[in-house]
Amino acid sequence: MKAISLHQPWASWIAEGKKTIETRFWRTHYRGDLLIVSTKKPAYQNLPLGKALCVVTVVNCRPMMPDDEDKAKCGYHPAVWAWELKDIRRIEPFAVKGSRGFYEVDYPKEQRAGQMALEFE
């Protein structure tokens, strides 16, 4: 499965449904499921490090707009791309050796059956 590593607390905020836009200085044409992994450093409170936390679906990539600040949990920057994330599914966290950019992680189908879709009001 395609994966990406994010620092804490942003990785956990995505897993909790609090962050539905990921911002990057690079554009992606990828659409589909993406495993969200927390980086091993730096430590942030008691949040999990070096673990896969959830699966999301990347549905769009477009230039960031000032209105995106709340959903992205960061300030507006005109040179940033906004990746729209939907269908956030929590998983049982498991250790992952991260990397930069997109990378592949072995995520067995039997583990995928345990995904829990978040319900938003």
Description:
With 121 residues, the chain is mainly beta. The chain has a single domain (2-117), classed as Roll (Archaeosine Trna-guanine Transglycosylase, Chain: A, domain 4), CATH 2.30.130.30. 12% of the residues lie in helices and 40% in strands. It is built from 3 helices and 7 strands; from the N terminus they run E-H-E-E-E-H-E-E-H-E. Strands 1, 2, 3, 4, 5, 6 and 7 form a 7-stranded mixed β-sheet that branches. It is globular, with a radius of gyration of 14 Å. The termini are far apart. 28% of the residues are buried. The mean pLDDT is 91.
Short overview:
This protein has 121 residues and is mainly β. The chain has one domain: Roll (Archaeosine Trna-guanine Transglycosylase, Chain: A, domain 4). The chain has helices at 10-15, 69-72, 109-112; strands at 2-6, 21-24, 32-38, 51-63, 81-95, 103-104, 116-117.
